[in-house]
Amino acid sequence: MVLGYGVRSTCTIGKNLLGLLLLLAATNLFSSHVFGANVYFVPGDSFFHFHATQEIALAPESTKLSLSYSPPEHPGGGDFDGYIGFASMEISGKTEGFRRGLRVAYQEYRKDAFKVVTVIEGEGVSRKERENNPLHAFVYNADFDLPKCDIGLKYNEGWYLLGGKDDDGLPKIDRLSNRRYVSFLTGEKAAITDWRMSTRFSPLGVDVPKDVHWQESGEKLDKPVLTIAAEKVQIVVVPFGTLNSQFSAPEEFYLMRIYGSGRVEKCTYVDGEVIWIDVEK
């Protein structure tokens, strides 16, 4: 999902319906051969997603919290046509608590799931390890309503305006030819839920640099870097590879929430009720 330009106050029923029809049409692109850009964070998204690997989670507390966007593992196929959106974000201010919380959450996760790596080595190549099952980590606004939201849905109402508007204020369909609806959850049910609930959740309040053509596909946009203050966010982590399963049956899984103070809570379901439990450090 991409782009939100304050459509909420001006959308008519017709435009909302158009958005849904475009969304459903774009959902079908997951199974077709299309030209498509790799979509990273775009203004209007409710979160910034990264992989909390051991390297990130166990870094010293004094390390600056600079994050690289991790797109979905299911890119959807088709011919690659550059990048759209911002690839980097920095949480500014006092981030030591988030560093502590990431370490606690990662160690808690590893009690149930051993780290799986792919070793890359060869003649003339330094040995490297790629972690295959890190934590999904989502940076949300501090007041984002959890767990009422479905983790992995961007709730970006105006994604279909990426190509710009015509004189009537409607999306320029011809400029969407190399754009795809890109979600962390697959299937029409997820797409409809994303659209239907989009007005209930605020976008992540990052400071977006001006005069940056992030909506035009091209080279990956590592700079400029998005910024947001530590006191304005929370980090939510979910076991790797469980997003679709949690959407279908959230009571069978858990997520953890990390506060700027370093406190970590685990969300579980007991008899259908949501229970938050502090994770011991």
Please tell me about this protein's structure.
The strands form 4 sheets. The chain has a 6-stranded antiparallel sheet with strand order 2-8-10-11-12-13. A 3-stranded mixed sheet has the order 3-5-9, with no helix packed on it. Strand 11 (255-258) and strand 12 form a beta hairpin. Helix 1 (13-27) packs antiparallel against helix 4 (188-196). The longest helix has 15 residues, at 13-27. It has 5 helices and 13 strands. The chain is of the alpha+beta class. The chain has helices at residues 13-27, 54-57, 96-109, 188-196, 243-248; strands spanning 35-39, 48-52, 65-68, 79-84, 88-92, 117-122, 125-131, 135-141, 226-229, 233-238, 255-258, 264-270, 273-278. 17% of the residues lie in helices and 26% in strands.
Q: What can be said about this structure in brief?
A:
By secondary structure, the chain is of the alpha+beta class. 17% of the residues lie in helices and 26% in strands.
